[in-house]
Amino acid sequence: MAAVVFSLTFTSLAMNLPGPNASSHGEPVHARSLDSTFRTVAGSAGSLSGKFVYLSPGLGWIDDSSTDIWRTQRGNTHNIVEDFLHAEMVNQYLIEYLTRAGAYVFPVRERDLQTAMVIVDDGDLDDVPSNGLYAESGDLSLFTGSGLGGFDNFQAPYSPTTNPFEAPEGTSRLLTTAASETARATWTPVLPQSGHYEVYVSYLSDGSRASDVHYVVTHSGGEAHVRIDQQRHGSTWISLGRYHFEAWFDSDVSDRASVALLNDSTEPGSNVSLDAVRFGGGMGDVVGQNFFEVSGEPRWEEAARTYVQFMGAPSSVYDFSPVNDVTPRSRYAAWQNQDGEDAVYVSIRSHGYEGARGTESFVYSANPPDGSTYDPTQSSPGSVELMTAIHNEVIADLRSGWDSTWADRGISSAYFGELNPANNDEMPSSMIYLGFHGNVQDAEAMSDPRFRRLVARSIYQGIVKYFANRDGAPFVLLPEPPEALSARGLPDGTIRVDWSSSPTDDLDLLGDPATSYRVHISDDGQGFRLAGETSGNQFDLTPPEPGEIVYLRLTAVNAGGESLPTEVLSVRSAHAADAKILLVQGFDRLERSLMPLEDMNYAALGMVFRMDLDRMNRGDYLLQYAEALKTWNVSFDSSSNEAVTNGRVGLDPETYNAIFWSLGRESTADETFDTTEQTFVTSYLNEGGSFFASGSNLGWDLDFKGSAADRAFFEDVLGANYVADDAGVYEIFGAPGTRFHALELTFDDGSHGIYDVRYPDVLSPALDGAQICLSYPLDIGDACVQYDAGDYRVLTLGVPFESIVSGTKRADLMERILLTLRVVDKPIFQDRFEDGALISP
Fold first, then answer.
1. Pick from 422, 354, 421, 433: which is nearest to 390 by CA?
2. In the predicted structure, residue 298 carries a pLDDT above the cut 60
3. How confident is the model at residue 323 (pLDDT cuts 50, 70, 90)?
């Protein structure tokens, strides 16, 4: 098939955290293709503009002819399963790097981890739709039926050879283009839940179609504009990016969840194809060739065999006996690729053998993979150069940023089917085995998000260098995100955003310098839009309405593309506010121990670590603080903890009545409070400030594992003692005789969409005058200590504030925190404190 021309400026979500041997600059740890603001000119800006990358993240669920069950193709080794291991990295990191560099990426398995899916077809014209509504508006005379077929909705589950785009009942329509918009078609989904969804479109392609078809995605952050060449890649699902949408139960959802195709084009009088729009990855809905049932698993976890059928590939791509998942991967790439496209194929795998370690790479030849022969002459042209560029980059970066002794097992050739030119001779193809998942050391490394992020960036950088070397052209690598971000409201209501420049290094590990920075803003902290761009390190946002909360994040830009983004900050500039608070985002940690542990005994896989970044650390938890504060007449600024440490944000009681420090599951490796932060906080308190800190490992880090200075800060300044590492429960209750007495709170055990707190600290008062404010049930101990030193006030919570499950309960807790710290002087709901209980000041 052929070239899709996009106008892409992806934005995403990230934070900063160094790997084991990384430079002191830190690196982005969370890459999500969240909401995007797309340019409306053809072509992505970046080092991989115009390039196509086919990615094969290995194995997945497949139906087993010998046992008549769906099973993974590898078992559990050291709590990881290869079938998920590399798909998690590719979907959450590697695709992000490549698209931000301008490439269009075709994975051979589903990319979206969203398990919900809604498809709206051109035939969905019901007045009360169950799945969504298709509508046409403007000059209706420009719409006609195509008579050419198309996608047919509601066919699933699909039989083992059904092509969803070739059903007899399938239809599509045509729309004639004009120099400016005179008509549009709109697909509005009924989404079952709010969240992030990959958006795909289908159309019928031929040479008469416009090459700059204009799609508009309306999401919770605004509009994204994408232009596509419909002369190519028809009768399949083409991604427009990933966006946040609100569920249908919101009465205004039609304004924030839709895809429209507009008929404006530089080729007026041509036509565009109108077919279906898909929201989300969904669950597997292709029945097995051997075992005639669907898998019941998320589509992204399934093998390429079922995915390529769902994507519209002909049966010659996947219909083999016995069922196999190898050749459909590369055959799909050859089918999807079209004449004139500049494409490469990269497979990411790992070995199961226990007795070896390290990374090795392969191209095709007829010899076995035993290292005895190296004959690359039978591989597709360019394969050796591609393999070498990626392999060398991965080894160099692992040794610079992870483990200086990481084993280089070299490059070789072997008779791997997915590299065989008999299945795909249209592009260079290579395979990299990152390590040995049967070996405990390699398994622990490969399962760590920091390792996966580093390797994903290395693979992307290797691909950039391959194309540059082949073409004899210079290249620029994506910049790293800017650091030490802060946002504060000025007296006139202007919001000033400030940051430190993107880091670089001399190890060829990080990206190239940024030339400009983009500020992205949001009304809800989920859907973002571009507010502006600057070459400096400061940007002023136009004053919002008084009391309005603004959420923001930054990306860095250079000729190589656009970086992963920073963490999300929250700011409200309120005129004549009763008080002003500084919110500090101090939760930077993202490593293996934060991974959710999933019980997969139903599939004989035992307990499996899963890298779902949304359930580990999204970097946007100041949102929960902001939402809990919005009913109060208080303003708030926010910053990363690095902006405090480097002095870009000062801690001054004259400026801030209180500081709220969010630490999540930060612990010893990243330090809840380092020495500099302790000094600044102590000085702030000694000058009469009020301070609230929450996190599940404060006591563990400072009091149990800390230095003498750490313990002195925790006990003598914060007034708390560490008692135990894990309360073992997920409930806390207000202590009698305090403002917290009526509270009953549940915090997340990993099933409520925040993250599993896992190890909530058990605390106790350390000083005279310090009091318990919240306790665990069953006489386990206490979760919260409040301390009024006279000159200052402190409240320390051993449970992350954002992990409180109910938004209403979080707001209730916030009210009592504000009163206890004397940030405000009276409750909003007075009757909460008039039941005769003793109320402490």
1. 433
2. yes
3. confident
Reduce the secondary structure of 757-804 to three states and give it as a string.
CCCCCEEEECCCCEEEEEECCCCCCEEEEEEECCCCEEEEECCCHHHE
Q: For residue 376, give the 3-state DSSP assignment.
A: helix
SS3 per-residue string spanning 646-698: CCCCCCCCCCCCEEEEECCCCCCCCCCCCHHHHHHHHHHHHCCCEEEEECCCH
252 falls in which pLDDT band (50, 70, 90)? low
Residue 41 clears pLDDT 60, i.e. is over it: no
**CA separation for the pair 747, 661 (Å, rounded):** 18
Confidence of residue 290 (pLDDT cuts 50, 70, 90): confident
228 within 8 A of 5, measured Cβ to Cβ: yes
* Predicted local confidence at residue 613, as pLDDT: 96
Residue labelled with tokens 């507009």: 262
Phi/psi for 779 (5° steps) reads 55, 30
Confidence at 829, pLDDT banded by 50, 70, 90: low
Backbone φ and ψ of 466, nearest 5°:
-60, -50
How many C-beta atoms surround the C-beta of residue 392 within 10 A? 16
Task: Give me 808's structure tokens.
Answer: 């209403």
Whole-number pLDDT of residue 5: 33
% of the chain exceeding 90 in pLDDT = 85
Share of the chain above pLDDT 70, in %: 92
Whether 800 and 665 have beta carbons less than 8 Å apart is answered as: yes
Query: Which residues sit opposite 359 in a β-bridge?
Result: 408
- Report residue 574 as tokens: 């309120």
Rg over alpha carbons for the chain, rounded to the nearest Å, is 27
Residues in the chain: 841
The CA dihedral of 695, 701, 702, 707, to the nearest 10 degrees, is -170
- Percent helix / strand / coil, the chain, rounded to 5: 20, 30, 50
Contact status, residue 93 vs residue 153, Cβ threshold 8 Å: no
Q: Distance between CA 757 and CA 697 in Å, rounded?
A: 10
Distance CA 773, CA 788 (A): 12
Residue 701 CA to residue 697 CA, distance in Å, equals 6
Are 205 and 198 in contact by the 8 Å Cβ rule? The answer is no
Q: Are 457 and 372 in contact (CB under 8 A)?
A: no
- pLDDT, residue 163, reads 96
The predicted pLDDT at position 43 comes to 39
Q: For 200, left (φ over 0), alpha (ψ -120 to 50), or beta?
A: beta
Would you state the pLDDT for residue 311?
98
- Residues with Cβ within 8 Å of 703's Cβ and at least 6 positions away in sequence, in order, are 710, 711, 714, 715, 720, 721, 722
First to last CA, the chain: 71
Q: What 3-state DSSP class applies to 267? A: coil
Nearest to 398 by CA among 121, 684, 20, 729: 20
Give the separation between CA 79 and CA 592, rounded to whole angstroms: 11
In 331-440, which ranges are E strands? 342-351, 359-364, 408-414, 429-436
How far from 688 is each of 127, 655, 683, 684, 788, CA to CA, in Å? Answer: 62, 12, 9, 7, 11
List alpha helices for 337-382, DSSP H.
none
Return mean pLDDT, the chain: 91
Evaluate whether 262 touches 174 at the Cβ level (below 8 Å).
Answer: no
> Contact 119/87 with Cβ under 8 angstroms?
no
Q: Each residue of 88-147: pLDDT tens digit?
A: 999 999 999 999 999 999 999 999 999 999 999 998 776 656 899 999 999 999 999 999
Residues whose CB falls within 8 Å of the CB of residue 522, separated by 6 or more in sequence, listed in order: 35, 221, 528, 529, 550, 551, 552, 568
User: Contact, 557 vs 4, CB < 8 A?
Assistant: no
Return d(Cα 274, Cα 270) in angstroms, integer: 13
Q: Is 160 helix (H, G, I), strand (E, B) or coil?
A: coil
Mean pLDDT confidence for 204-233: 96
